[in-house]
Amino acid sequence: MTDSTPAHGTWEPHPAARWEDGFLSGNGRHGALVFGDPNDERVVVTHHTLVRPGGRDPRPPQLAAGLPALQDSLLAGDTTAAESFTDGRPHQWVQPFHPAFQVRLRQASGDCPDYRRDVDFTTGVVRAARTGWTSRVFVSRADDVIVQQVTGPGLTLDIDLDHRLPGAPAGLGVGHGAVLTLEGALLSLRARYPDSDRACTGVTLLAVTGGTTTLAPPGAHIEGARSVLLLTRVHRHTGELDVVEEGRALRDLLTDYDELLGRHAALHRTAYERVTLDLAADPAERAQPGSELLKRPRSAALLERLFAAGRYHLLSASGLFPPRLTGLWTGDWNTAWSGAFTNDANLNLQTASAAAAALPEVTQAHANLIHRQLPDWRDNARAIFGARGVVAPGHTDGESGHSYHFSREYPLHLWTAGADWLLKPLVDHDETHGTRDPRTAAALAEVALFYEDFLTRTDENGHLVVVPSYSPENRPANASWGTLNAAMDLSAARHALRTAAAYHPGPDADRWQALADRLPPHRINDDGALAEWAWPGLTDSYDHRHLSHLYGVWPLDEITPYDTPELAAAAHRALELRGAENDSAHGHLHHALIAARLRDGDRVAHALGQVLDGDFFHASLMSAHYPKRDVYNADAAHTLPAVLIEMLVQSTPDRLVLLPALPTAYPSGALRGVRTRFGAEIDLTWSPDGASAVIRPGRTHRVELRTSSGTESLHLVAGEDHVLTLRAW
Fold first, then answer.
1. Residue 306 and residue 326: Cα distance in Å, rounded?
2. Biggest alpha carbon–alpha carbon distance for the chain
3. Is the peptide bond before 468 cis (omega within 30 degrees of 0)?
4. What's phi and psi for 147, nearest 5 deg?
5. In the structure, what pLDDT confidence band is assigned to residue 365 with cuts at 50, 70 and 90?
6. What string of H, E and C letters represents the secondary structure of 274-294?
């Protein structure tokens, strides 16, 4: 190990000309994306609630009356029957996420001697500085406000709120306001959506020290100041926002910068510092700017920094909601895939590290999204399936949980596994903390009720049939998308019923366990691979970015090398045969997560290499969806920490696996503070000479330990540290 510590931030020696390279701050509600240069610094303001209204039919399709006929047709061998199981509406996206505006600070053009910009992951402060000028920005978790301070001798600035961002609709109804105040000035910008009664309004309070402030509509002109402090909030609303009242609310917060930062940092720092990763990187490489490290994709220092940045960005994007496809940030109104919460893969991949990486804030944000949408999930179950309980949508904008995003090629309204997939992180959280949230218990019961009503058809062997069934976002080679017994649907139904039973002992549990036992087993195809569809005769389509059929391997514990070795071998064969299709980042890292569970360190390393070699990361260390930084997207940035944890430490409520899939490229390191699903905190260190772990149990429990040395039983006692020493492997 080295004496130095990994970097908990990143920096660049040059300004960011592109918003994609701008450094990020956020509190899970408001976001700030900072780019530009000292002569024209820009802070793009975002908020999780900012979605653009548009012409769409947000109701779930009323299809329940036709469900029995569809089931009859699919069971009779009509492989295309589900293609007409719609209400005829065209394909429609959820409401797209968009930025609010940019706060622009302009001054006379000049050189930028000794320029540097950086972001401190421990505080969330984005800083830019040159000789005689410093700007600092953070988004307060304590006060829910964007804080920006500019300091320097004799500051002369023009400040305004500018809605002119790429893709902004021409029909926006834009109105500006600017008034002088005792502190300096109050600026506002209202943007009313075309053909809508909704608008978003931003308000910025300027507190100026020294110099003079005059109005320069639509903004303010500041001359000869020593510092300027800006407090900004944005709201999405109907009607008109009371800007004067919003100004008073900001004025009530007004204090010096350090006090504002102290209140925020106490919350942010505590969460960020819980878990750290050290890969014994070269100290000289650790000192490099992020853009230089990205040119060294095999650098341990790069992986350390991406781990730190991933936890930082994930925490910063999670609060009111969990992260969207773009996290909490965008500088463009034309967000790919509407900047939605994409539930059939991306959301759970992005939040995959929450329990193990000690970020309950992320799980709480995830729970917020689920619980506010449960009434809509009930509507989906009734409208589409004529069932009690709940069915989750494939996509949501955060406002509606109705299933209205579907098409012939993407029949996401037929996907019944979503509720189990989305509730799994809440179950992991309960296991980690040794509690059972009554809201999670209630939601699980509703999922079980859905399966009671939905699982009514049987095959010739008396097994229940999931019909219709859909494996996101793939289709059999010899059938259409809507079909029978997708492996993910089988795993989800089994897991949901058994988990609901565990939360609700008694007659309900007996009934749900019996229903789960009647589901068919997984099928192994002629290639020796776990089949994506367990229905006989359906053939696999291997070249696809999604790995939905391996849901039983990750995130579930249904298929493991320890308990189900034959199925694990078949799952591994399925992973070997899987193509990368369009090189989506989420596909590569999903592959890595499954490979780690199957103890294949070489395959983990290969999947990581596809992302690290593929130029997926911007200088901001936020990622892209495709190689060569194509399409701003948080999947790689947020999922990567989960991959690194899974290759080092895995746990179930009764098992601990240490170093299951360590790539040879990282022979030494330390992972500290990671949490397990049996309620312990672990510090793990390893080197070519061996490894050691300190286990700090939060409850008394016996677990099975799996290492390269074999298997043993550990009796852990709450409050007593347990030290393990492992021989070299």
1. 17
2. 85
3. yes
4. -110, 130
5. very high
6. CCEEECCCCHHHHCCCHHHHC
φ, ψ (nearest 5 deg) of residue 586: -65, -30
- Give the orientation angle of helix 507-517 with respect to helix 487-503, to 10 degrees: 160
Average pLDDT, the chain: 96
pLDDT at 728: 64
Rounded CA-CA distance 285/300 in Å is: 9
Rounded to the nearest angstrom, the gap between the alpha carbon of residue 478 and the centroid of all alpha carbons in its chain is: 34
Q: Is-contact 515 456, C-beta < 8 A? A: no
Measure CA 214 to chain center.
43
* Residues 393, 377: Cα–Cα separation, whole Å: 7
DSSP state of 118: E
Residues in CB range of 228: below 8 A, 6 or more apart: 149, 150, 155, 157, 159, 184, 206, 207, 208, 209, 222
As to burial, measured by CB atoms within 10 angstroms (0-12 exposed, 13-18 middle, 19+ buried), residue 245 is exposed
Q: What is the pTM of this model?
A: 0.97
Burial of 209 (0-12, 13-18, 19+ CB in 10 A): middle
Q: What is the three-class DSSP state of 155?
A: strand
List, for residues 231-242, the tens digit of each pLDDT value.
999 999 999 999
Q: Say how far apart CA 229 and CA 148 lie, in whole Å.
A: 6
- Which band of pLDDT confidence, cut at 50, 70 and 90, is reported for residue 729? low
How does strand 184-192 pair with strand 173-180?
antiparallel
CA within 13 Å, CB half, 668: 9
Spatial neighbors of 554 by CB under 8 A, at least 6 apart, are 590, 593, 594, 596, 597, 646
- Cβ 215 vs Cβ 180: under 8 Å: yes
332 Cβ contact partners less than 8 Å away, ≥ 6 residues apart:
19, 99, 165, 166, 167, 632
Point out which residues pair with 121 in neighbouring strands. Answer: none
* Strand locations in 121-172 (E): 125-130, 133-139, 146-162
Residue 55 confidence class, pLDDT cut points 50, 70, 90: confident
536 membership: H or E segment, kind and range = none
Cβ atoms 630, 624 nearer than 8 A: yes
SS3 159: strand
**Residue 495 three-state SS:** helix
In the numeric block, which tokens belong to residue 346? 């991306």
What size, in residues, is the chain?
729
Q: How far apart are CA 16 and CA 38, in angstroms?
A: 11
Find the Cα–Cα–Cα–Cα dihedral 246, 250, 253, 254, rounded to 10°: -150
Query: pLDDT at residue 1 above 80?
Result: no
d(C-alpha 494, C-alpha 500), whole Å: 10
The least confident of 53-62, 73-82, 560-569 is 53-62
Angstrom distance (rounded) from CA 725 to CA 684? 10
**Sequence-ordered list of residues with C-beta below 8 angstroms from that of 111, at least 6 positions apart, any chain:** none
Both structure tokens of 151:
């300091």
What b/e sequence results for 594-605 when a residue is b if at least 16 CB atoms lie within 10 Å of its CB, and e otherwise? bbbbbbbbebbb
Which helix (H) or strand (E) segment is 45 a member of? Answer: strand 40-47
513 neighbors 503 (Cβ within 8 angstroms): no
Peptide bond into 360 cis (omega under 30): no
The full 3-state SS of 242-263, as one line of letters, equals CHHHHHHHHHHHCCCHHHHHHH
DSSP 666: -
Distance CA 122, CA 269 (A): 5
Which amino acid would we find at residue 537?
G
**Spatial separation of the C-alpha atoms in residues 204 and 222, rounded to whole Å:** 15
Cβ density class 391-410: b for 16+ within 10 Å, e for less: bbbbbbbbbbbbbbbbeeeb
List beta partners, residue 704: 655, 713
Instruction: Encode pLDDT of 325-353 as tens digits.
Output: 999 999 999 999 999 999 999 999 999 99
pLDDT at 609: 97
